[in-house]
Design a protein that fits this description.
- The protein is an alpha/beta fold and 444 residues long.
- Helices cover 33% and strands 21% of the residues.
- Strands 1, 2, 3, 4, 5, 16, 17, 18 and 19 form a nine-stranded mixed β-sheet that branches.
- Strand 18 and strand 19 form a beta hairpin.
- Helix 5 packs across helix 6, helix 6 runs parallel beside helix 7 and helix 8 runs antiparallel to helix 9.
- The longest helix has 23 residues.
- Bound molecules: zinc ion.
Length: 444
Amino acid sequence: MSDGKVLFENALLFDGTGSEPFVGSFGVDGAAVGVVEEGPSLGEREEWRGAERVDLKGYTVIPGLIDCHVHLTSPWNSGDHEPYWKLVTSPSLKALTTAANANRCLRAGFTTVRNCGGTSWNLPEDVAARQAIGAGLCIGPRIWASAGGISMTGGHGDRAYPAYMIAHPELGCGVVAADGPDGCLKAVRERIKYGADFIKIYTTGGVSTPGDGPCAENFTLQELRAIVSEAHLHGKRVATHAQGLAGIRNAVEAGVDTVEHGSFLDEETASIMAEKGIALVTTLRVFTAILERGAGYPNPEALAKAMLVAEKQQQALKIARAGGVTIAFGTDSSQSIPNGKNAVELTSLVKLGFSPREALLMATRDAARALGLDDGLGTLVPGKSADFLVVRGNPLEDITLLEDEKNIRAVVLGGKAKIMRDEAGEEHQSQAFSVRALSRALMG
Ligand SMILES: [Zn+2]
């Protein structure tokens, strides 16, 4: 599918705007959506004369999915112990792993992923992967890169490795330690220098780092204000890892843009988040996946802490929904949810009581809003980027369809079909398929 005009007709359309799905047709003009209309065909129109046509009868089209919380620089094998893997893996292999994990997300229908830390301090692999994809060296989603997270000394992430290794930032321990308003301001500027699209911080302890607790506060309010004001000065949003209530409150007061996990959220804080337009990013599955692995999970301390937060996070989501907080989709993909299996989180949300429609809105419109990318992404409407999936069956009736890649027959990013699967489920990748190849694959 090269540049030019293509009409996709007769699909069940879920456009991500919040309206009910409808049988409709849409036109793609280069990289953007040109027209969307109800009805099985757009008919003859002057401005679309000569456009190629693809009949999508029997398919559902949804906007490309957005995962607001992935970790791309992580091991292939879920049996690996992540800190060990990071220490023994060369920066170059980490960069290749990052690109490969990003490719897995795209093949699973995620056309945009926000990488929430976990890269080497001075060699951010997420930025490298973003550049490689942008240069056409490899096929992948849009990567919104953190270039590594910022923690306080001894905070979440910073205690993941023995203290003497802090002197070796190139090992890729995942976070930069920063202290005091001036130190925090400098850390933000450094992340921007290295190519960050947004700033990832940690305002509480968490589950995976040894020795810290999910409710421990990280950073003072003064430090947080320095981080947020400096990031916003440069047009960068701030995402904070926050489990305990005090750390959520501090972050919300300082004016962050998204709260990740948010396990101990209460009604009062939810109402402030709704008022300020701060989104909550769900990561339900990551903790329940640790619980399911039970004694087999390589980090017993994390297992104990996951028990503490898993149920709390489920309650937090319900509090957020009741309080009108924007809820954006995230998985914390790495070990517990492998990259490429991101859609299992959609199923977890539906199991918790959200409708498939609500879950899909979190992963499209609301995720784009949370990232500040809703000008161009998240909904299938004229003027926005032509990022969409052609899905066999109707995921609004059965959300689990999206867990099986074979049901995603085409992944289109910026008007270019990058991934295509034929009737037998065989997958093909290209920088851009021809419309004829796409039609042939879909129609058998
Ligand atoms: Zn994370």
